[in-house]
Amino acid sequence: MSLVKWGFIGLLVLPAAELAAFLLVAALIGWFAAALLFVATSVVGVMLLRHSGRDNFERLRAAFAQEGLRAVHLETPGVAAMLGGILLVFPGFITDLLGAALFVPTVRRWLTGMLARSASARRRRSQDHRIIDLEPGEWRQLPDERRGRRKSRAAPKTAANGRSTRRGA
User: Fold this and answer.
1) Using CA atoms, how far apart are residues 80 and 102, in angstroms rounded to an integer?
2) How far apart are CA 82 and CA 121, in angstroms?
3) Is 135 part of any domain?
4) What residues make up the domain containing 61?
5) Cβ(85)–Cβ(42) under 8 Å?
6) What is the largest CA-CA distance in the chain?
7) Considering only CA atoms, which of 106, 91, 99 is closest in space to residue 49?
8) In sequence order, what are the beta bridge partners of 158?
């Protein structure tokens, strides 16, 4: 299944999973404490976005304008903090857990490696196996020997019965 399909399925399932997570947390720690924690994580997310906001956003915007989507990596300074803050602002404990995990360097490195492996596997599957992609230092252009020669008209091909295969001949 493609990444877009998984993302769409995830967006459909996420609200139900968030509701189930809220009910579970509320059953464990109480309704008032769950509601307070629910609001507190959103406030923390807003504070983190305000703290890292402008500088990281401008750095990310400039890199995205220069290199496109390839510029966005979780190890790029500020990207994980912004994404983690956005996930903390979204209501729900699952998104809060994912957002908080992005602030842990080990989780960030693991997730970056997993995404890189997934992208390279997808790239390998979609590549034409007849094309060999070489780096600039691995190849050189050979001169075309036919350039200097004049094109000669080939004699008409003849079939096995001796007749010409050209039309009108």
Assistant:
1) 6
2) 27
3) no
4) 3-128
5) no
6) 99
7) 99
8) 164
CB within 8 A of 74, min separation 6: which ones? 80, 83, 102, 108, 111, 112, 115
Contact yes or no for 99/25 (Cβ under 8 A): no
> Tokens 């629910």 — which residue?
38
In the numeric block, the tokens 């009910």 are attached to 23
How far is CA 80 from its chain centroid?
A: 14
| Continuous segment of H or E residues that includes residue 130 | none
Spatial distance between the Cα atoms of 60 and 98, rounded to a whole number of angstroms: 21
How many domains does one find in the chain?
1
Residue 145 included in any domain: no
The whole model's pTM is what?
0.61
pLDDT digits (tens, 9 = 90+) for 73-118: 666 667 778 888 889 998 899 999 999 998 888 888 888 788 777 7
Q: State the Cα–Cα distance between residues 75 and 96, nearest whole angstrom.
A: 20
